[in-house]
Each structure stands twice: as C-alpha cells, then as structure tokens.
Design goal:
The chain is α+β, with helices and mostly antiparallel strands. It has 14 helices and 22 strands. Helix content is 27%, strand content 24%. The longest helix has 13 residues. The structure holds flavin mononucleotide.
Length: 479
C-alpha cells in the first residue's frame, strides 16, 4: 500500500498503465479525453501543462477504472479472481480492528498555504468535465472530512464539489450520508459546520471514502488497519480537522446553515449516465485556507456514461458489504455475492445453497433492505443456485432465462429509499421529495420443492474434462 498519490502513480507507471498528456484544456477537453480513454479501458492519465496554468499543476484521472489500479490501491494481489477479491475484502473488514491516525506537526500538504483574502480556488486547474455541467468541478475524486459535533468522531465521504467563486465551494451530499447528518447537527444549533476537502490523496483513503463504512467508524481508523500503520495527519489551521499530511490539495473552511448561504449546484454528468438531478440550491463551504503541495496533483474521478465502468471494476464496496450483512444476520448457505450494472450498485446477485423453503426469498428481502440509499442501489436482486458464479453475468442471465418462471419468480416491492440522482424519479415525485423506488426480486433458483427433479446440466464432468485434456494435451496447449 502507499503513503500518497505519487507512490501509486509510480507503481502504475512501472506497469505501463500511465500516460502523460500535455497542453489539454480544462474546459471540456480533459473531460473528453478521459471519456474516450476510459471507453477503451485505457491507462491512467496524468495531465500537465494544462491550458492557462503553470507546468506542474497536474490532474490525474482514470486511475481506478481497471482492475490493476483497483488492486494496487487496495493492496490486493494482482492474480486474484473477481469473486476472490470480494471475499477477501469482506474477510478483512470482518477482522477490522481500529488503528487511529497519528497527528504530526507538519507535512507536504502545507508546502503552499493561501489564507483568507488570498484564497483563490481557480489556482487549481479544476476541469469542466461534461458538456452540460453547471461549472468547474474540483471535487470528483474528493474526500470530505467532517467531525460529528455530539460524538466527536471524524468521518470522510465522497460528495461532489463545484467551484462557485474564488473562495466558495458548493457540495452535494445525498440525504442520509454521514456528512449530511453531521452538518445538519451543526446547523440545528445555528453553527457553521467545519469542513476539510482533499482533492488528491492516497487512493486507499479515497476508496474508503466512497464505501458505506458504518456510522461511528472513522475511515481513518480503517485505513490505518489496512495499511498496518496509522495514517499521518496534520490539523487544519482553521478547523482543527485531521488532514492527510501527504494530501495534494486541501480546502478547509466552514459550511454555514443553508438559510445563510446556499448556491445552485449542478447540473453534473452523473454515474447513471444522465444529468438527472439538474441544478438545485445546495450548501456551501466558505474556504479559509487552501493548502497544496509543490506541483500539486488534482485527482479526478468524473462519471462517464455506462456501460463504461467509471468506478471499481470489481464491486467490493457494495458486494462485500452485502455479503457481510447477510452473514451477520445469521443467514446460512450464502456462497457468493456480486453486484453488476452502472456504478456496480444496481443488480445484486446472491448465490446460495438452498436449505429450506423460502430461503432464496428471505435472502432477497434482506438484501433489498440492506442495499439502500444511493440512487437505484439494489433495484434488482437476483438469487441463483450455488452452481452459478454470481460474478459472471452471462451465467446469471442463463439462470434467469431457464430457472425463473416470470409468473411466480418475479416480485416487485415498492417504497425503498433511492436518491435525487435517480433518473426514474418523475417530476412530481422529485418536487415533493419522494425519493423512493420499487425493487424487483428475481428468484432464479430451481423451485425448492422440486429442485431435486431439475433436469441435469449439459456439461462434461470435471473427471471427463481432465482425462480429455490430459490425453489431447497438444491440442489444448494450442487452443
Ligand atoms: C466516484 C463517486 C462519487 C460519488 N459522489 C457522490 C456525491 O456527489 N454525493 C453523494 O451523496 N454520494 C456520492 N457518492 C457515494 C458516497 O461517496 C458513498 O455513499 C459514501 O459511502 C458516503 O460516505 P458516508 O457513508 O461516510 O456518508 C459517490 C461515490 C463514488 C464512488
């Protein structure tokens, strides 16, 4: 694992997975290049000499869209299968023991400090990523740090951030997100919420920032546990919030109650492939200090229209979380859990060894309850038998097509929490903030009461295959 973004980029470069791009324009060109390269599942990109900016003010994108990037960032062996990755991550998180961050007096993040009147967010070459974005988004690969005013623990989460003017940022955090809850607690007391936003840092921190780590568990402690050493942090000079000492770019300040200041945020090209949430008044941060390293690197993680996967190619964030929750709930027989679809959130597949009537439905119902919050999350929940690899969507579809009679195998249950980013919210629902979606449960397991009479699968046995492979070795060496 790495101490900062630079070490990660060096590791990617050593594997031939990083390209340098010089002279691109922050205004749509960088976003378009990123889109084209991610469509080709191409390498990570490091932009320098951005139009209108001094050399050295760089932007890194497309770092986690390929499996090597994801495995490097998370310290996973490069030869693991996709389902192994999910299983290993689940087991690591199960054995979690907190390792809190260590406060250090100084760090590279303080190499340059612009305070109060000198704060100028436009010093950073934040791109306008997509054609209809409402402005320049400095925060796409961001971690936003807040402290709970009552409980004192520190959270960080990824919520997009738009520049409003030299000293003001607007940030969009959905209902129920930890920063949303924390900032509302400050505002209820009439106080501004202290906030620090990092726009480039070790990618392990970023990955954790996007995962549903439970309320009360600081992501810093999880990062320390995974790295096997505490994350070194400096204290923000205005807020006292812990900031990664090796962060690239950090804005720190205060978010006033929205009735004192809020600004139009969006539209923004979102991960479902639309500009669904349009533009709304959202909370802001008045920036007191802008910190950045020499030759800072802005990390960009802008969404691209599906089927391009702009997030983890292996869905550890959702799949391992769901798998763990099902086991914690005492469910037996779960063989594997995987998540497919845009953002790796929408189609959850659970493979199980059926033990009793209703087993598959019970798992699907629990999964529907556990997977909530993000737009469209867990909209489709498919249960399959244990001979189906849940990470292989073709196999899953084979089971859906051949083991699920639509008349009895599909149930639609309305009323689950989604988010304002859900493209299927009607204008009326959006207006009255009815952020709910139905979920579809597809039971693609053989019906329990006659599963023993299910027709045999047309596939040579492992023994036959091994014998044929050994006997015709020349052939199988060639094909
Ligand atoms: C690339 C990326 C961008 C995201 N952007 C947002 C966002 O703008 N707003 C939001 O509420 N959630 C966003 N999320 C989801 C949250 O980061 C995620 O739910 C995370 O768990 C939130 O942290 P929290 O649980 O500490 O609130 C994003 C996730 C990813 C992977």
């Amino acid at each position: 694992m790495f101490d900062d973004l630079r070490q990660f980029l060096a590791a990617l470069e050593a594997r031939g997975k990083l390209e340098q791009v010089r002279g691109a324009d922050w205004d749509l060109e960088i976003g378009t290049i990123n889109e084209l390269v991610s469509e080709k599942q191409g390498p990570g990109l490091l932009f320098d000499e951005v139009k209108g900016y001094p050399p050295g003010f760089r932007i890194a994108t497309n770092l986690l869209h390929h499996k090597i990037g994801q495995k490097l960032a998370l310290g996973l062996a490069e030869d693991m299968t996709d389902l192994e990755v999910v299983r290993v991550w689940k087991d690591w998180m199960k054995q979690y023991r907190p390792l809190p961050p260590k406060v250090v007096p100084d760090g590279p993040v303080f190499e340059n400090i612009l305070s109060d009147q000198d704060v100028d967010l436009f010093k950073i070459p934040a791109p306008k990523w997509h054609m209809h974005d409402g402005g320049r988004y400095i925060g796409t690969g961001v971690i936003t740090i807040t402290r709970d005013p009552d409980e004192g623990w520190v959270n960080f989460g990824t919520y997009r951030v738009m520049i409003q003017d030299e000293k003001t940022l607007a940030f969009y955090a959905s209902p129920g997100k930890h920063a949303t809850i924390m900032r509302e607690k400050y505002w209820a007391k009439g106080e501004p919420c202290p906030v620090a936003m990092c726009f480039g840092q070790d990618l392990l921190l970023f990955c954790l920032s996007t995962m549903p780590i439970p309320w009360g568990t600081p992501e810093y402690d999880v990062a320390g546990y995974l790295r096997k050493k505490p994350v070194e942090v400096v204290e923000g000079k205005a807020t006292g919030l812990p900031i990664p000492a090796t962060a690239e770019i950090v804005a720190e300040g205060f978010s006033p109650p929205p009735d004192q200041d809020s600004r139009p945020e969006g539209p923004f090209g979102e991960w479902q492939g639309y500009y669904a949430s349009g533009s709304r008044q959202e909370p802001v941060v008045h920036v007191k200090n802008l910190y950045f390293r020499n030759d800072p690197i802005l990390f960009g993680q802008p969404p691209v229209k599906p089927p391009v996967n702009t997030w983890f190619p292996i869905p550890i964030h959702t799949a391992s979380y769901l798998w763990d929750r099902l086991e914690e709930a005492g469910m037996m027989g779960v063989q594997g859990v995987y998540v497919h679809g845009p953002g790796n959130r929408i189609i959850a597949v659970i493979s199980l060894k059926q033990r009793y009537p209703g087993h598959a439905r019970q798992l699907a119902t629990l999964a529907g309850a556990f997977l909530q919050g993000g737009a469209c999350t867990g909209r489709y929940i498919i249960t399959v038998d244990d001979d189906i690899d849940p990470s292989n969507l073709d196999e899953v579809l084979w089971a859906v097509c051949t083991r699920a009679d639509p008349e009895t195998a599909i149930s639609i249950v309305p009323g689950f929490l989604t988010s304002p980013l859900d493209p299927m919210l009607s204008p009326e629902h959006r207006q009255r903030k009815q952020f709910t979606t139905a979920k579809v449960f597809v039971d693609a397991c053989w019906p329990y009461h006659w599963k023993d009479k299910a027709p045999p699968v047309n596939r040579a046995s492992d023994e036959l295959r091994q014998k044929a492979t050994a006997k015709f070795k020349d052939l199988f060496d060639r094909v």
